[in-house]
Amino acid sequence: MFDYKGKVALVTGASGGIGKQYAKELASRGSDVILVARSKEKLEALAAELSSTYRIRTYSLPTDLSKANSVASLAQQIVDLNLNVDILINNAGFGTHGRFETISNDEEQEMINLNISTIVGMTHQFLPYMQQQRSGIIVNVASLSSFQPIPYMATYAATKAFVLSFSESLFAENRHLGVRVLALCPGTTKTEFFDVIGTQNMPGGINGTPESVVKAGFKGIDKKQSYIIDGVKNYWIAQASRFMPRKFTAIMGERVTRPANIQIPASTVKQ
């Protein structure tokens, strides 16, 4: 079992949802917590709550990690605080929803930067120290969509497929160096995510909670897994895609996730 007491944990996207729950759980286990997100007010309120409740040190570092040079700037702030990161929770990210051509390229590029480039940059910054200490944890928040294409969320699903592959590779590289790397793959979860992308009508409903997702994350680390999926139902959904032709998976996915306002021409329905 990993001893969290006295460790320094960095949580991105910490102002709400899964990130906020991760910060609370780490603080309850005795870790000092560096909180990172865009909202200064939310971070400062959470920092005050955690330090008061759990008697640990908290650091609020408001940062927009989708911006150029933000990772290097954040890393320098942590150096200036004379801190080293033992636990890294790469949770910051967002999604887009709709027909690909209707989503602005700028928004898609910002999402790619945050969901992929930021995770790579954060790992470059903080993994070497963990390797030197021969101890550490990196949790990259992926998604159930890492395992199959998601029409109308095409770019988002592709970024999360990257996160899964990247994390599994780093897991293998670091398994003998004392650093545990995990891709945490939630299904639909009750957070602000679906408010941001503009839909609450997901197939099967929105059933997961930040608490269940974070609990799965700690379980995956304890068992030294390379990835973990939140929920038994979600696990079998992910595994089913391995046994079906990729074309069939994509077409069925399009039928299931198609927004109500999108009409398919009758001449193409059977294609």
TrEMBL record:
<dbReference type="GO" id="GO:0016491">
    <property type="term" value="F:oxidoreductase activity"/>
</dbReference>
<keyword id="KW-0560">Oxidoreductase</keyword>
<comment type="similarity">
    <text>Belongs to the short-chain dehydrogenases/reductases (SDR) family.</text>
</comment>
<dbReference type="InterPro" id="IPR036291">
    <property type="entry name" value="NAD(P)-bd_dom_sf"/>
</dbReference>
<protein>
    <submittedName>
        <fullName>3-oxoacyl-[acyl-carrier protein] reductase</fullName>
    </submittedName>
</protein>
<dbReference type="Pfam" id="PF00106">
    <property type="entry name" value="adh_short"/>
</dbReference>
<dbReference type="InterPro" id="IPR002347">
    <property type="entry name" value="SDR_fam"/>
</dbReference>
